[in-house]
């Protein structure tokens, strides 16, 4: 089998894994790469492709059991939200967080995460504090992700989603009900973006309230939330060592009480 066919198999596997799709046409795919007389190499590669397809299908079945669904809205918003959410009959308070520098820091010490596993909790109080949140209160993450391009094939997008999945798995292992967790991320506008939603990129980025408005819509309306009893925690508070005041201004724009992580996670 020539190099181009080997590359085709590798590319096909990567695309399937990245897109988390279920493969149901294994015979058709294999026929595309196995036209020539089978050799030991061909048989070996064909077997590898079959095993990979089986693995991808298994991965797809696992994904179907996930309690969250991820979606990209017009390249300007990433949502990872509960699949089986039921509207509440009575209003509830929410506890909302920034992500980087608030819930987590990088393990590497780098300013930005280098991989999906490059993270650690902000401090030792994070888990116990999250466990203390009322059972009926949604936990919502609003995060600016200026290094992420919201495309399924983007490595930065895959790393970000992988990091969120890793965080959710860690929380679940600690006994926290992750079906209460909602994630909204504002990605960057790709250099070659040619869509008609340029303004939406600006509206989603904190301190603008676009991500919060999307959560309100997904949650069933602002009347479902006790705004005065809700809180937003973020590290960008305009202090002397802070990179900005975007979290403080975001809290003001959505009318939520505000705390910095050093005061909340104690």
Automatic annotation (TrEMBL):
Stored Gene3D superfamilies: HAD superfamily/HAD-like (3.40.50.1000)
Keyword Transferase in annotation: yes
GO biological process per UniProt: DNA repair
Keyword set includes RNA-binding: no
InterPro entries membership: HAD-like_sf, HAD-SF_hydro_IIIA, HAD_sf, PNK3P, Polynucleotide_phosphatase
UniProt entry keywords in alphabetical sequence: Transferase
GO molecular function, one term: double-stranded DNA binding
Primary enzyme class: transferase
Enzyme Commission number(s) from the entry: 2.7.1.78
The name this protein goes by in its record: Polynucleotide phosphatase/kinase
Record organism: Wickerhamomyces ciferrii (strain ATCC 14091 / BCRC 22168 / CBS 111 / JCM 3599 / NBRC 0793 / NRRL Y-1031 F-60-10)
